[in-house]
UniProtKB/TrEMBL annotation, chains A, B:
Pfam families membership: NAD_binding_11 (PF14833), NAD_binding_2 (PF03446)
Keywords: NAD, Oxidoreductase
Domain of life the protein comes from: Bacteria
Name of protein: 2-hydroxy-3-oxopropionate reductase
Gene3D superfamilies per record: N-(1-d-carboxylethyl)-l-norvaline Dehydrogenase, domain 2, NAD(P)-binding Rossmann-like Domain
Location of the 3-hydroxyisobutyrate dehydrogenase-like NAD-binding domain: 164-283
PANTHER family: 2-HYDROXY-3-OXOPROPIONATE REDUCTASE, 3-HYDROXYISOBUTYRATE DEHYDROGENASE-LIKE 1, MITOCHONDRIAL-RELATED
Gene Ontology molecular function, alphabetical: 2-hydroxy-3-oxopropionate reductase activity; NAD binding; NADP binding
Residue span, 6-phosphogluconate dehydrogenase NADP-binding domain: 2-161
Active-site residues per Swiss-Prot or TrEMBL entry: 170
């Protein structure tokens, strides 16, 4: 089976290389000549255009920043929609808003092309290890066909529901992560203002009901003031904007998402967009200093 | 060593019984005759007043609802302060605001009585098992003296810092728990409005960065609509009011605490005070229905 891979960035490139290592035939076409060399050196095929990728692939994976880029790859001037083989499958592994996933699936279905939304969580190191978590939306038959491919790039692959469900789960994930980072920040700033050692507080509460993966991953970074990414503020902001967009389309108030959105926008404007999202702590630290 | 135990409620009674089982001499005086019988049946001593408890104890443990009750037990009309033996220790295991702990410690110190604030996390089942987490504030010498006692009632006993640090950690804990419950709620309501099965979303995200003890304990309750306590809304509200009070005293804005406080107040007023704090979900569920 030939797999086309579009979007050989920080996440996409290692995922394509893992598919090659597993013996899949991968065809790609990067605008970056060095990336093309790397794909060839790993046994992949490089062609001249995205359309050529589509013309020869049974499955096309897209891994790009957001919905406009996915739509551009599919339906734009250089878009592949007319080159896709009938009966082929597009797996969009980008994190986009789930309503866009549904629109894309509907349009492709008219061309006899099946679609899965399959966003991932876990950063570059997990993409390299092939251990990202994949949340999938789409029909069961298409999911089963693609499962071996997805299991090659991810450690956990869960079909959440029909098309859009993968990105709905991803947005749910991003709400919880952003808010929990904010909660740990507020708690640690309070401890600091009470004159209590933050590390001691972290150690005292991490084993109880307050404990979380976020707390263990991010509290030490907050305490050290070390915001090396990790998952960047501007990427989390992109996801949170997609949550806001989805909430608006559903006419649903999302007060915590709105709160996280305001903080992330402020951080991004202040030049912290390339820091780890644990830099949300900066907002609470500032609250602690303002009135001192 | 004789331990006086004041406050034989849902948490205090099993803790006193665990001390008796471990061989400590415990003296108590409940207003409930059945509780007094139970203490006697377990080998404890029952006296007629709190003052008599203080007069014969090397260590007095208090486990009452909040700071006013602690102050009443110590300094009120029936208060024990003048009966405490010089050189004795008061361990307050109630969850109160840390500034009150500091005030109490200062007053007791003038009488040559040492003080620890040692609030616990974990509910009635853990109190019965002797596996609560104890967060302790106080000087190291007093802490070391009381450590065997605290280890009898708790599985984890951490000295967080000087007096007030135990309750500062407890408040930090309660901020994170309330906010994380709210975050999981908002995420699950969004998933539901997107037409995605909430259990599938929970399963898809629980293993990643969004995963937490709160999510595993509370998401299934939210999905089932089962809010049997557990830890009650009105108790979490009491703690969150203590956070607000502490924030005001420090002139520190705590936006997430304020948000949690508004929700918990609303739930309590609507008659949900005796439900589990996972009933915070009700607030977000209502947001999801309002505009439908």
């Amino acid at each position: 089976m030939k797999i086309g891979f579009i979007g050989l960035g920080i996440m996409g490139k290692p995922m394509a290389k893992n598919l090659l290592k597993a013996g899949y035939s991968v065809v790609a076409s990067s605008s970056n000549p060095l990336t093309n060399e790397e794909i060839k050196a790993n046994g992949g095929q490089v062609v001249d255009s995205l359309k050529e990728i589509a013309a020869v692939s049974e499955v096309v994976i897209t891994m790009v920043p957001n919905a406009p880029e996915v739509k551009d790859v599919l339906f734009g001037e250089e878009g592949i929609v007319d080159s896709l083989k009938p009966g082929s499958i597009v797996i969009d592994m980008s994190s986009i808003d789930p309503l866009a996933s549904k629109d894309i699936a509907a349009t492709l279905r008219e061309r006899d092309v099946q679609f899965l939304d399959a966003p991932v969580s876990g950063g570059e190191p997990k993409a390299i290890e092939g251990t990202v978590s994949v949340m999938v939306g789409g029909d069961e038959v298409t999911f089963e066909k693609c499962l071996p491919i997805l299991q090659t790039v991810g450690a956990s692959v869960v079909r959440v529901g029909d098309v859009g469900a993968g990105n709905s789960a991803k947005l749910a994930n991003q709400i919880v992560v952003a808010t929990n980072i904010a909660a740990v920040s507020e708690a640690l700033v309070l401890a600091d203002k009470m004159g209590v050692d933050q590390t001691q507080v972290y150690e005292a509460i991490r084993g109880g009901l307050a404990g979380s993966t976020v707390m263990d991953a991010k509290a030490p970074m907050m305490i050290e003031g070390d915001f090396e990414p990790g998952f960047k503020v501007d990427l989390h902001l992109k996801d949170i904007r997609n949550v806001m967009k989805t909430g608006e389309a559903l006419d649903l108030d999302l007060p915590l998402t709105k709160f996280a959105s305001d903080i992330l926008e402020e951080l991004d404007e202040a030049g912290y967009g390339k820091e780890d999202h644990s830099a949300i702590y900066r907002y609470f630290e500032k609250l602690g200093k303002e009135k001192k």
